[in-house]
Every structure is written in structure tokens, then in C-alpha cells.
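Supplementary Note 3. Input sequence used for the single-chain structure prediction.
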Amino acid sequence: MKRTLIFVFLAAAVLLVGWIGFSSKSDSVQWFETEQQAINYGVKEEDIQSDDILGKPKVNGETFVIYKFRSDGDLGVGTANLVKKNHKYSWQPTKPKVIVKTKGGRATAASTTLESVSGKKFTFYAGIANESPNYGNLTFDPIVDSASHIYYFLEPSNF
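The predicted structure, written as C-alpha cells, is reproduced below.
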């Protein structure tokens, strides 16, 4: 009897763990018929508005969406990789998001490495442009959003 009870308990535990694992939505990829539908999905998932999208650069065969967001009063920039596969589209967030202006008004600049779903690596630069932007020793011409003054640039990495 004791042995049967232990077996039933273990079987129930295995089933519960399997059910929880297979019902997880975090690893599922949503596919859409159009690129715009994938973008609309991403806007909803990131809790932003359509006009928060700063651009949709295509670099080295990859399409990214660059968007601004607010978090606890800070202003930040996020990115997502728009993936096309079998004539369908998917929004795949890339990490990390960066804060470019604190709620106290302090502007910061950032550069980070992004990796596309296909494994390609990119260097992403973002910050706040002032009236006479100075990007230091950088040799690129960033895109600047006139409303938010956020600048960004994305280039393939050399590694």
C-alpha cells in the first residue's frame, strides 16, 4: 500500500511538471501573415504606442525595429528583430534595452551588442542628441528622432 501511494505521488508529480513545462508561453514564437501584424503584436507586448517606433533599419540582411519606451520616468530605447520565415513574420525582442535619459534629466549614451535570431551580431549605439551633437570618435552618422532627440545607429559587428 505504501509503495503504491509513493508511485501514485511520483506519477502525479511528473505529470504536473510536464504539464507546467509544456503550457509555458514564454518560449513560444508568434507568427503573422504580414510584417505590420508582427509589429502590432510587438507594440502590444512591449506596452508602447505605434508612434514610439523610431525606425526599422535593415542591416546585413536583418530587419530590426528600434523603439522608445518609458520605465519609472526614465526614457529608454529597445530593439526587436523582425524575422521572416516561410512567408510569415515574427517579432523577436533583442536584449538589452538601454536607458538614454533618466527621470532627473541626465542624458546617457550607450553601445551594446545585439544578436539576431539567425546568430548575426550587431553593435547598437543610442543616446540623446543635444543641439550640437558630438558623437566622440564614432565614425557613423546616426539617425536622430526630432521629437525625442534620441539618436541610434546599428552596424554589423566585426566579431
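Residues 2-23 form the longest helix (22 residues). Confidence is low (pLDDT under 50) at residues 2-26.
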